[in-house]
Design brief:
CATH architecture of the largest domain: 3-Layer(aba) Sandwich
CATH class of the largest domain: Alpha Beta
Low-confidence stretches: none
Helix content: 40-55%
Order of helices and strands: HHEEEHEEHEHEHEHEHEHHHHEEEE
CATH superfamily of the largest domain: Response regulator
Number of helices: 12
Radius of gyration: 65 Å
Length: 401
């Protein structure tokens, strides 16, 4: 009997044994979809292939785990050594090594802070890439012609944006790019809308949605949407949720607005304020022009005065005045000299008159001339000479006897 039993036992190769055990594990449906809680150890991120290799352990046991690239690239966080996680997996035997392991299709951090941890990890990653750097922020255009709005076409946020822009900036052209703003397809939908707005050469984009629970804002915390905003060639204003809400998209945008209405106010100017500014500038310009005109007129007057002083006509006028002055001085000098000469003539005449022999003759004296010679002595004449006697009035002829 025992001998018969020994004859029925088959001799298996190692490969056959491992293959058999692996087949049995695959047949067990309970092992093809299991959730396993444990701590990650021996973690290896195979960057070339994209596969993740690690061990899950608890206080008493451990199991090897593999997560292939197709599943790993969908993770919202990066697993780390010592992290407690819950793994969705299937149990199997790695036939080559005869090693029991699980093939993980999804990982979630164990505990209520799982999503927060994933968000924090993504934030650190994007910060290291410089996505949130203030130096990369671009100024918004002062007067955009095309304003793109990326949000749900059925939400209140779009109507708020339309109302604000219609009131503040009716001259702008509003382009709406409808997108899903929540759900699994929201991130891809928002990215497609951003790309469409870029193709249409919008001048500024408003990307966002109305308020809601934090779960409804998840699309704006995805790396896909954040990078689409960061790489967008058009300045982006982020307006996700209420004023107290905060997303990674807000940090990546060129400007963050607390609400969609506030985003519209930031994206476009107020034409009424612009008109008032134009009027103020016009008044200031007019005052400045008048002041400049007055200054230039005064300067022109000063230059004209200087030019007049330097002109030949003015110089001729000055020369003419100088000539008249000299002529008057000459005439005055001539009159003075003439008067002096007159006075001297009178004086000399008076002196001559005093010394004139005629004065003596006037007193009864006479002058006798023998020819042309004045007779001063009787010895100068002889009897019979004829003399010419000059009297005070007239002359007579006398004969010496």
């Amino acid at each position: 009997m025992a001998e018969a039993r020994r004859k029925t036992v088959a001799i298996l190769s190692v490969t056959q044994l491992n293959r058999y055990v692996g087949f049995k594990l695959k047949e067990d449906r309970a092992l093809q979809s299991v959730l396993v809680r444990g701590e990650i150890t021996n973690f290896t991120n195979h960057y070339r292939s994209g596969h993740l290799y690690f061990t899950l352990r608890d206080a008493e046991s451990c199991v090897k785990a593999v997560m292939f690239r197709s599943h790993a690239q969908r993770l919202k966080f990066l697993p780390q050594e010592g992290m407690n996680v819950i793994a969705a997996a299937s149990a199997a035997l790695y036939e080559r090594d005869g090693a029991f392991q699980i093939y993980v299709t999804d990982l979630q951090p164990d505990g209520t802070g799982g999503k927060a941890l994933a968000l924090e990890q993504l934030k650190k990653k994007l910060t290291a890439m410089g996505v949130f750097d203030a130096a990369s922020k671009r100024p918004l255009p002062a007067m955009p012609q095309k304003i793109g709005v990326i949000t749900s076409d059925t939400g209140a946020a779009l109507q708020d944006v339309k109302n604000v822009i219609g009131r503040r900036y009716p001259i702008g052209h509003l382009l709406v790019y409808p997108a899903q703003v929540q759900g699994d397809a929201a991130a891809a939908s928002v990215c497609r809308a951003i790309a469409a707005a870029e193709r249409d050469s919008c001048d500024v984009l408003i990307v966002g949605r109305g308020g809601g629970a934090s779960e409804t804002l998840e699309a704006f915390n995805t790396e896909q949407v954040v990078m689409a905003i960061y790489n967008c060639t058009v300045p982006v204003v982020s307006a996700v949720g209420h004023e107290t809400d905060w997303t990674l998209a807000d940090a990546a945008a060129d400007l963050r607005a607390p609400t969609p209405s506030a985003a519209a106010e930031l994206a476009v100017p107020d034409v009424r304020q612009m008109l008032q500014q134009v009027q103020d500038c016009s008044r200031r310009l007019e005052n400045a022009m008048q002041q400049q005109f007055r200054q230039k007129a005064q300067e022109l007057e000063r230059l004209q005065d200087r030019l007049k002083l330097q002109s030949p006509a003015h110089r001729q006028e000055l020369a003419q005045q100088e000539l008249c002055h000299l002529q008057k001085r000459l005439e005055a000098g001539i009159r003075q000299i003439w008067q002096q000469c007159q006075e001297q003539l009178v004086q000399q005449t008076n002196r001559l008159d005093v010394l004139s022999p005629m004065k003596i003759l006037g007193r009864g004296y006479a002058l006798a001339y023998h020819g042309e010679e004045l007779v001063r002595s009787a010895a100068q004449v002889q009897s019979g000479d004829v003399l010419r006697v000059q009297l005070a009035e007239g002359e007579i002829t006398a004969k010496v006897q």
